[in-house]
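Deliverable D2.4 — example input (structure tokens):
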């Protein structure tokens, strides 16, 4: 996921991990008379609760979470320190490995499976939240339930979509976004031939999250998978994979050449500068465009990823909340998360985030205040998680599928081919070898 702003690590974590200090959000409060105001077991008693969170480039998201944490801290006699970092995943890995540092962490994708034995069991809390809000989407359970126990709370997912220029596509005869991948190749060809800004879907190791969103989604929509449903048998070397790679080759041939070198911010910058006609991303490009490039914002919209031979399939970019097992403040941490997942707080986050934080609770789909119900440019994003999958699908989310994602095996399979570093057959065989080391080794 692209980040245009970020904050660094807390001073405490910088000292513990030997990394440079950055900006920490410290939120301090207590009861009016200086005594605990919370229920038994959840008062901080003047202590600090610390968390390492995902950075967003929508400032309102940080500001809102700061206010929410301050409100909770005021009732629980302590401080809450939330650090928002662009490299939050790497920093969380360091905290987990050292078994020291923050009490809380915002996990990504399948990380609950990687770190399961070092996370607090939050089953009771998750089941209670689900019961009150219409139940969880299946993909939320896939991401956070390990061996029958919830190891993280599925906070939300980032709805990846096609951010596209309606005016440019209109000039080449498309009044709606292409509904299939082959139709997208046709549109990309027309844009190139008309010498207009081109299609530019990131497929680069330097832009791992944006690239993975397209790579997995395209692969699945052609009926290809990295592993069988048993979660053990590697299946990437197939005719379906060859068809998906061929489609990507055809699309890349008529796309902007930068697609094989974009980092997580490069496609955003190009889109906002009017240099490209479409790219995959969260709706955060639109948020930024309204402030920095209003003419672009006026002439853009959002669409689900195209369909393949087996329909529309999509990787879900998950954000979940976990408590590290080394924390000395487990009960206050659970109370804080319970508060964040209450309707008032979660609704406010979803409204501010414009689908960057989309709840994984079914009860939110029909709320009139949700972005997909209140903004016509987002109306196609309702219930996007219903057809979504975690890395490793159709196998179960697992430590192995998380490792394959972190290795960028599927992304690199496509990237090697479109950059000319390997033929399709060579790249597929390389991916197969890498996956066998993870799943079968």
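Example output (designed residues):
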């Amino acid at each position: 996921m692209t980040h245009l702003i970020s904050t660094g690590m807390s001073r405490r974590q910088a000292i513990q991990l030997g990394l440079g200090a950055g900006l920490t959000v410290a939120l301090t409060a207590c009861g009016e008379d200086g005594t605990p105001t919370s229920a038994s077991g959840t008062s901080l008693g003047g202590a600090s609760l610390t968390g390492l969170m995902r950075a967003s480039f929508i400032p309102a998201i940080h500001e809102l979470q700061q206010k929410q944490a301050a409100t909770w801290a005021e009732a629980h006699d302590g401080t809450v320190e939330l650090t928002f970092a662009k490299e939050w995943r790497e920093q969380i890995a360091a905290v987990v490995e050292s078994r020291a540092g923050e009490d809380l962490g915002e996990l990504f994708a399948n990380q609950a499976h990687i770190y399961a034995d070092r996370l607090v069991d939050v089953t009771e809390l998750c089941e209670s939240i689900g019961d009150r809000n219409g139940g969880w989407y299946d993909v939320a359970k896939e991401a956070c339930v390990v061996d029958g126990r919830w190891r993280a709370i599925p906070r939300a997912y980032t709805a990846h979509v096609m951010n596209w220029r309606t005016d440019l596509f209109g000039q080449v005869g498309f009044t709606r976004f292409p509904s299939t991948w082959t139709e997208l190749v046709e549109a990309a060809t027309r844009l190139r031939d008309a010498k207009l800004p081109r299609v530019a879907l990131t497929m680069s190791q330097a832009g791992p999250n944006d690239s993975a969103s397209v790579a997995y989604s395209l692969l699945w929509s052609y009926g290809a998978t990295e592993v069988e449903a048993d979660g053990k048998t590697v299946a990437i070397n197939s005719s379906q994979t060859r068809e998906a790679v061929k489609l990507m080759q055809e699309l890349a041939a008529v796309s902007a050449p930068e697609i094989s070198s974009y980092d997580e911010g490069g496609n955003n910058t190009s889109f906002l500068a009017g240099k490209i006609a479409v790219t995959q991303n969260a709706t955060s490009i639109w948020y930024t465009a309204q402030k920095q490039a209003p003419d672009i914002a006026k002439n853009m919209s959002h669409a689900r990823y195209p369909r393949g031979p087996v329909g529309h399939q999509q990787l879900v970019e998950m954000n979940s909340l976990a408590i590290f097992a080394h924390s000395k403040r487990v009960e206050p941490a659970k109370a804080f998360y319970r508060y964040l997942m209450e309707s008032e707080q979660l609704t406010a986050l979803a409204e501010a985030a414009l689908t960057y934080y989309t709840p994984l609770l079914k009860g939110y789909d029909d709320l009139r205040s949700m972005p997909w119900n209140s903004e016509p440019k987002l109306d196609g994003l309702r219930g996007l998680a219903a057809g979504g999958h975690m890395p490793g699908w159709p196998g179960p989310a697992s430590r192995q599928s998380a490792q394959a994602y972190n290795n960028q095996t599927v992304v690199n399979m496509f990237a090697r081919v479109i950059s000319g570093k390997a033929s399709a057959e060579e790249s597929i065989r390389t991916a197969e070898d890498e996956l066998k080391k993870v799943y079968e080794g």
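The longest helix spans residues 59-74.
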